[in-house]
């Protein structure tokens, strides 16, 4: 019943059977029914990170902790799985925006964008462009009104339909 409603809206939710499998795995790993930040990092193999990368992983965890109690419970976990595996581009974009908008003011400024690129670079070791160069390049592409100040979710949504940030990064990596 829940699946048919979400499928009618153009979303494919995790099925009841898959949810049960995920639930059993979750409860086996986290018998308290709650996943801590440390357990989240262990699950993803992200221990011993530098401070920037660590801060980024903390932000990711906090966006999944929807009720802000310091833990990820099973409902938050399955919502995250559903977003990552089955989420539509618009849903993922909203989640990324929430992640990047560190101060929660409804827009992403250059400093927030730079912080995220520094963290991602620290996580994956990519060094073809400095975080500053990459931030300038991306910000220039998505700054709709060319004011150099901040990006809103609406502006980002409109622009991402026209550009692919990964392609920019790949193209500059080949230069």
From TrEMBL:
Q: What are the GO cellular component annotations?
A: photoreceptor outer segment
Query: Which molecular-function annotation in GO is an example for this chain?
Result: calcium ion binding
* Lipoprotein listed as a keyword: yes
Keyword Calcium annotated? yes
Q: Which UniProt keywords apply?
A: Calcium, Lipoprotein, Metal-binding, Myristate, Repeat
Query: Which InterPro entries does its entry note?
Result: EF-hand-dom_pair (IPR011992), EF_Hand_1_Ca_BS (IPR018247), EF_hand_dom (IPR002048), Recoverin (IPR028846)
Q: What's this protein's name?
A: Guanylyl cyclase-activating protein 3 isoform X2
Task: State the organism named in the record.
Answer: Mustela putorius furo
């Amino acid at each position: 019943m829940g699946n048919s409603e979400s499928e009618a809206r153009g979303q494919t939710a995790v099925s009841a059977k898959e949810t049960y499998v995920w639930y059993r795995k979750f409860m086996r790993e986290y018998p308290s029914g709650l996943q801590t930040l440390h357990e989240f990092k262990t699950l993803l193999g992200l221990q011993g990170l530098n401070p920037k990368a660590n801060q980024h992983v903390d932000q990711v965890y906090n966006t999944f902790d929807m009720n802000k109690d310091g833990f990820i419970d099973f409902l938050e976990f399955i919502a995250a799985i559903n977003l990552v595996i089955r989420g539509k581009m618009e849903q993922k974009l909203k989640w990324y925006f929430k992640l990047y908008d560190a101060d929660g003011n409804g827009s992403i400024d250059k400093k927030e964008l730079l912080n995220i690129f520094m963290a991602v670079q620290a996580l994956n070791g990519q060094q073809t462009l400095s975080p500053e160069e990459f931030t300038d390049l991306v910000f220039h592409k998505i700054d709709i009104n060319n004011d150099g100040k901040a990006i809103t979710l609406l502006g980002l949504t409109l622009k991402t339909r026209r550009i692919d940030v990964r392609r920019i990064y790949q193209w500059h990596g080949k230069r």
